[in-house]
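User: Please run a holo structure prediction.
Assistant: Happy to. Please share the sequence and the ligand.
User: Here you go; the ligand is NAP.
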Amino acid sequence: MKSKSGKRIGIFGFGCVGQGLHDVLQDNPHLNVARICVRDREKLRTLPSHHFTYDPQELLQDESIDLFAELISDPEEALLIVRQALSAGKTIVSANKKMISENLSELVALQQEFGGTLLYEAAVCGSIPILRTLEAYYGNEPLQEVSGILNGSSNYILTKLDAEGISYDEALAQAQALGFAEADPTLDVGGYDALHKISLIAAHAFGAVIKPEQVVRAGIQHISRRDVALAQALGGRIRLVATAKLNQNNRLALQVLPTLVFPDSELYYVEAEFNGVQLQARYAGDQFLKGRGAGSHPTGSAVWADVSAALAGYKYTYPKFRYNDEEQLKPVALEEEDELKVYVRTTMPEFLPELPWRELTVFGTERRETQLVGTISRKDFLLYLPALKQTIAFIAQIPAHVSAEQVVNASYLKLEEVA
Ligand SMILES: NC(=O)c1ccc[n+]([C@@H]2O[C@H](COP(=O)([O-])OP(=O)(O)OC[C@H]3O[C@@H](n4cnc5c(N)ncnc54)[C@H](OP(=O)(O)O)[C@@H]3O)[C@@H](O)[C@H]2O)c1
């Protein structure tokens, strides 16, 4: 039955985000929750059982529902739900960055063909309104760079390593106990989650639909106290930074890398589970947004904002997308030739691949591991990164102004403390 008092929403998922949205909606008397679709019939719920269904079709085919919120943890099922809703010209909001980033072209095409709407602010940095900012405010202004700390779990771990001198495993266990990291943390600490988010940012900020293999990606899972101490001796901190940057040749450079940041960067001060995004716009200059990138209520708030906007008729326009005469999306040229300066520490130096370094300084070989600072073209790094990762290496980008000599000196300075 269609409610007389307001709009009706069907919710998929009643976990961290679904419950957060449900709480937040209690403040909105104009929106009635029709039903909530979940998977596990045995699970104890905070609401009576008549609120739930276990069949997605009960929601998707209910004509009395005005819009849907897709907040489940299963990307394959999420895609089926969003696809069906958009194919029927319906409105749906989602928080699933993996599903959306991997299927963006199709999901945009479905909206164009059937007139439906998909919004997904909650998928990128939780409560930070980055997509709406890129769409509505920077829709016309050329952007030079959007980069940031986009994954709260890995930032929590890195903050703990930095502040408390504990091991990676201890920090991860703390993050899991507090609910900041999943039981399987691979998506977060491996940099995949940040990759999904920077892909969505690249679409809205630069009109680029990118494939995962086009992005230089390394995670934090092999970081040791030695790496943290080295960063501190240099006066910096290691943060997992995702970057989409338009170089002067108009080519887009994309990466997700542990990165040495210094106190002159806003990212240095983004701590624990917080996220931070910096924008460089041609005319507006630099801006920085910081906030809660995850969590039940912050993410529920972002979903609510999308729901309200969608009900008011808001759609993404993808203002930076460019089309050819056949109305096909023009690809954005990707950077391959610029140079990356990286620090690598591996405990399996015997398996280090022969990379085409432009400059290379090797040190730390007196221990049962090897450290190096090298510069390499982005194209070569992308090519050899899988082989480098096989050596269980910790890889971090260091700014061009930090010399290999400074890194070597800093490593000996802190050696005693972490030996
Ligand atoms: N957690 C965050 O802070 C956060 C932030 C931003 C974005 N997100 C995204 O939001 C989405 C939900 O995350 P979450 O943290 O809320 O997950 P969660 O706490 O694990 O909850 C997942 C919910 O999805 C339901 N579900 C899973 N597979 C289903 C299926 N096949 N059919 C129907 N329901 C299904 C589960 O049902 P049962 O209750 O029956 O198990 C559960 O209610 C994910 O895409 C995540 O990436 C999360």
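The two ends are 68 Å apart (CA to CA).
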